[in-house]
Amino acid sequence: MDTRLRTSFVPKKTLVSRSTAQGGGSVINPFLSLGIIIFFMSAALTGGAYLYKALIQKQIASNKADLVKARESFEEKTIIEWKRRDNRLKVAAELLNLHKVISPIFTTLEATTLRTTRFMNFNFTSADDGSLFIKMKGEGLSYTSVALLSDSFNAQKKIKDPVFSDLSLSDKGGVNFLFTGSLDPSLVSYKETFNQTEETSF
Q1: Hey, which residues does 135 pair with through a beta bridge?
Q2: d(Cα 112, Cα 131) in Å, to the nearest integer?
Q3: Residues 78-113: pLDDT tens digits?
Q4: Which fold has domain 103-201?
Q5: Closest Cα to residue 187, out of 118, 127, 131?
Q6: What are phi and psi of 160, to 5 degrees?
Q7: Long-range contacts of range 149-158, CB-CB < 8 Å, 24 or more positions apart?
Q8: CA-to-CA distance for 183 and 90, rounded, in angstroms?
Q9: Where does the pLDDT of residue 198 fall: very low under 50, low under 70, confident under 90, or very high at 90 and above?
Q10: Which residues pair with 136 in a beta bridge?
């Protein structure tokens, strides 16, 4: 009689993994993950834009408040004083532009008049429209001297329309004449004279 105990290690039922029995495992959908990421990124960008807009509006409001304070800090008396000074400067500039000097006329006549001629008087007039005129009586050694003087005055650009008239013999044997002509306004302009002086000084 065989008394050995027989044991069998063959399972009666097939072992099934719990994971397989519970539904075959879970799989993550990649499209769902991408959508979640995009959603959170959009939310972050929207929040950042909103905060930036709020910051800019706050900065603008602060700048406006500073500007109002700056305007209020100026006293009315100070503003009135500035306006008065500005008006004075404008009047001074206008007077400077209208101011005339006579000395350049004599400098021009000295450079243009010949040694054989001379002037015995000088008359200067200014019209309302700004036109300038001179009238002088003169004397030359001869008719030739007067003719050469006429050529010299015609070559002078600052003297316009020079006219020599009323020629007559003097008691000393010379020739008397009357000169009339107009002047370039820039010749007697203080502003032009000042600018020329500044240019020649450099």
Answers
A1: 123, 180
A2: 21
A3: 778 888 888 888 777 776 666 677 888 888 999 999
A4: Alpha-Beta Plaits (3.30.70)
A5: 131
A6: -100, 145
A7: 149/113, 149/114, 149/116, 149/117, 152/112, 152/113, 152/114, 153/112, 153/179, 153/181, 156/108, 156/112, 157/184, 158/108, 158/183, 158/184, 158/186, 158/187
A8: 28
A9: very low
A10: 179
Structure tokens at 24: 């075959």
